Amino acid sequence: MMRFESVGLRYGTSEAPDAVRDLSFALAEGSFTWLTGPSGAGKSSVLRLMSAMLRPTRGEVSVLGVATRRANRAALARLRRRIGVVFQDFRLLPYMSVFDNVALPLRLAGQSEAALRADVTEILRWVGLGAKAIMTPPELSGGEQQRVAIARAVVARPALLVADEPTGNLDAQQARRLLALLAEMNRLGTTVVVATHDEDLVARFPAPRLALAEGRLTTREPLDG
Amino acid sequence: MARRRTSRDPLGLGRALSGLLLPGLVAAMALLAALALAGAEAAAGLAARWERGAQAAVTVQLFGADAATAEAARTRIAALPGVAQAVVMDPAQVAALLAPWLGEAPALPLPGVIEVRLADGSEPPDQVRARLLVAAPGAEVEAHGPWVRNLATLAASLQAMALALLALVAAVAAAVVAVATRAGLAARRDAIEVLHGLGASDGNIAGRFAMRVAGLAALGALAGTALALPALALLAGLAAPWSGQPAAGLVAVPAGLPWGALAAVPGIAWLLGFLTAQATVRRWLQRLP
Fold first, then answer.
1. Which of A70, A176, B61, B78 could make an S-S bridge to B86, C-beta 3.0–4.6 Å?
2. Which domains does chain A carry?
3. In sequence order, what are the residues at sequence separation of 6 or more whose Cβ sits closer than 8 angstroms to the Cβ of residue B40?
4. Taking the complete model, does pTM exceed 0.80, yes or no?
């Protein structure tokens, strides 16, 4: 479902150091994987490669059967619609209601208003925000905004869900609740990759891990695939 | 209500591309375009009319000729090759034309005047004069063709300048739209990246910008064209005596205006805005994978 082969990534000019170097691994369909490492290790870069928001400079990244380095722009856009992403800073649209933020992926996929209304209402109830659908993100707490971001990432039932430090802005209780949501998604068949530098979180939910340091893979704990 | 509105505008373009700047600038461009269009139309009309006039451009004056002599000369001139028509002007008409200078009942004998229309206005004036003098010895021959043709050339140049002005106005309008679109892109960069990340295609994002920008441009163009109409109506009224139109009152609808072209200005502005915004946004999106 996902394969990195000798992947290198460099931002900007040729003098800049590589953000990711010689990365090779494969993740099986329906797996749950931690992506760990200190700040600046390249976790965000790897997540952006996984979610087709960056193309690799070298090597080949294959996600859901699409080789992203040479795929055309339209194919990448279609691929991104099958991937849910949760950002550390949420990236919600502040002038739109919670409902419309969550409905966005379905509207981009061309779903009818009647069909998406039921889906959005159900997913908001699932993350415990059914009563706040008409509020805007700035009116919500950090934890609530995080749950809106999760709802938006999963509403279109993505085949792959990637999350970048999703607990970074949450207290311990909210972090546990979030992890339970991600585990539930995984149980329902979604492949999940979560980047974190929080070792307690990893200890509480044991799963295979990709450990990064300075853009390279350092540990490869049991990864099937 | 508010939700319905924003749900169709996830990039918040209603606010990012708002205000009066873009419509105002496009309105000014449309006003100039409307003036140029009307100018081109008027110049084309004058050129055509004067070119037709250039063929009827020779007058033959016979001094001291009575009606019979004048008619005999007219018959001879009409029989010449290359002459389309020869008419003896009514002496009363000639007297009326000269009345401001000579008084109502001139003591001077008035010349007999024959208006000659040539079939082909390109013959050299000297040749025409020589042939006419053979037919009407002692006459005074005055060819108007050359200066009328010069006027027609002037009118054609004016028309070409008006069309060039129109092209320049369109280019400036496109530049204005591109600048406004880039400002909108800068203001909504984060939202665009969110939509892009969620899998919105380039066409989807560019389409949202293009529809918004095109709507504002069309609105501005409508206002600018409407503003130009009173000035155009006034000019058309003033130009009526020279363009062969009956002088229209200021309240009457002037017939000399290019109504079809003026009505197309907002539509053309819409298209210009749409295509320019599409190109600008699509080029900008190339920075995202």
1. B78
2. 1-82+198-225 (3.40.50.300)
3. B159, B162, B163, B166, B258
4. no
